[in-house]
Design a protein that fits this description.
3 helices; 31% helix; 11% strand; 169 residues; two-stranded antiparallel sheet; alpha+beta; 2 domains
């Protein structure tokens, strides 16, 4: 499995080198571990760890680190309690994503869940905050973007999200 994700990471780096502005790499397999969380995640982590390291190292060696934003995330976190069969259900109240390169301060951690991992309690961050930060790092002001819906143009006060200044280099 790692060969496949490794090939995808190599292709992503080559596309970035050639000026492609947005590249999305999917890892192989299904991370949705409603059963056998330990086996599922151990397998997928083992298959993605080395290829992702290779991608990040390649970007640094080739001078692409400062201009490339790398984002790793999923759709949900996992509940802190078993769902049965060693799995865990989705948790929209506490989940993790990481970003690197393009102005992210390396080694920075932002936010914490409660003592059992059920919900975010320190430096709570919304998806809007993540999007605002990503757009900022890509040179765009999320507050100047407009979205037209049912003939309505949203005002500046309708725009949600704040740039997470604490994680910027």
């Amino acid at each position: 499995m790692s060969k496949n994700i490794g090939t995808k990471c190599l292709m992503a780096r080559r596309l970035v080198e050639r000026g492609v502005r947005f590249v999305q790499v999917y890892s192989d397999g299904e991370w949705d571990a409603h059963s056998d969380l330990l086996g599922n995640h151990s397998h997928h982590c083992a298959s993605t760890d080395q290829p992702i390291h290779g991608l990040l190292t390649d970007l640094k060696r080739r001078g692409l680190w400062d201009s490339t934003l790398v984002i790793w995330g999923g759709e949900f976190g996992r509940m802190p309690v078993s769902q049965g069969n060693g799995g865990r259900d989705h948790n929209p109240n506490g989940f993790m994503a990481w970003m690197a390169g393009a102005g992210i301060q390396g080694g920075t951690s932002h936010g914490e869940t409660d003592e059992i991992g059920y919900k975010a309690v320190v430096d709570r961050t919304s998806v809007h905050d993540l999007h605002a930060t990503m757009l900022h790092l890509l040179g765009m002001d999320h507050k100047k973007l407009t979205y037209f819906h049912n003939g309505r143009r949203y005002r500046l006060t309708d725009v949600a999200g704040e740039v997470l200044q604490k994680i910027l280099a």
